[in-house]
Amino acid sequence: MLDIAIVGAGSVGLLLAAYLSEKHTVTLYTKTAEQATLINQKGVTNLTIKKTVFPRAEIIDRLIPHEYIIVAVKSYHIQSLMPTLANVSTCFIFIQNGMSHVKEVEFGLKQSSNWFGIVTHGAKKYAPTAVAHTGVGEIKLAPSTNNLPTEAGIKRLKSLFRPLNIHIEHDCKAMLHKKLLVNAVINPLTAHYNIKNGQLLSAVYEDEVRDLCKRVSKLLDLDYDEAYRDLITIITKTKENESSMLQDIKNQRRTEIDAILGYLLTLENDYRMRFHYEFIKKREEALM
Ligand code: KPL
């Protein structure tokens, strides 16, 4: 049994808490005291398997060291969290979409053993204490550049995430780039057209999916055929899911468009990517 903290109780944070609390001691750190109180009263329910678990909940200001701290907040919250995280130097696992948090973490938390992770599970938060597992995907983790994990460390990490199809990768940048491509295609298109991931498989969207996939794979130096195959696999596995960007727009929250297409536009000012970037930015501005 390991002592784990999960920072962030959005859809991914709740999904991790729902599975990891079955075997480990989990503390879930929330943004608001209201959500912490509700979780302490009602637990966290996985609506898909109809199971409730009881992690301890605290607000993020009370963060203390744990064996593992999984940071599952949106990428744009990482910067403001940095002073809190630097105080509890430990083994961190960062699970964010996009790339903008990577430099911040590698620079700000040099003394910790950091891992970056990607999640392709579909998750939807229905209430502050309830989440649905809307698509079975996987979790991939790779060590950051200054982290040289031992075989024993890798084994522990694998056992920690076992219920969620864990894979350990060695090339962190390649892993994050592959996920960036997935998010750069699925998230803006589903948010733009207000559709579930699976609807992207319809012939109506095929040209647009292929076109964005081609542009992003070229920009990130990924093999197009392989990238397209992986993309279709993830769309298929999460076909019932609403992407995190669509959920953000529907809930009138800030999206991760800056960390995804915004980041890619800093590499190349591609007009199709800019079109989708600006469309989502306008939506976001109108909502907030
Ligand atoms: O990461 C996701 C997201 O929505 O942000 C995918 C894998 C696309 C699942 O919807």
Properties at a glance:
about 290 residues; N-(1-d-carboxylethyl)-l-norvaline Dehydrogenase, domain 2; alpha/beta; binds ketopantoate; 4-stranded mixed β-sheet; 8-stranded mixed β-sheet; globular; Rossmann fold
Report on the architecture of this protein.
- There is one protein chain.
- This protein has 11 helices and 12 strands.
- With 288 residues, the protein is an alpha/beta fold.
- The chain folds into 2 domains: 3-170, Rossmann fold (3-Layer(aba) Sandwich); 175-287, N-(1-d-carboxylethyl)-l-norvaline Dehydrogenase, domain 2.
- Helix 6 crosses helix 11.
- It starts with a strand and ends with a helix.
- The mean pLDDT is 95.
- Bound molecules: ketopantoate.
- Ketopantoate (KPL) binds at residues 97, 120, 122, 182-183, 186-187, 197, 234, 238, 241, 243-244.
- Ketopantoate binds at residues 97, 120, 122, 182-183, 186-187, 197, 234, 238, 241, 243-244.
- It catalyses: (R)-pantoate + NADP(+) = 2-dehydropantoate + NADPH + H(+).
- Catalyzes the NADPH-dependent reduction of ketopantoate into pantoic acid.
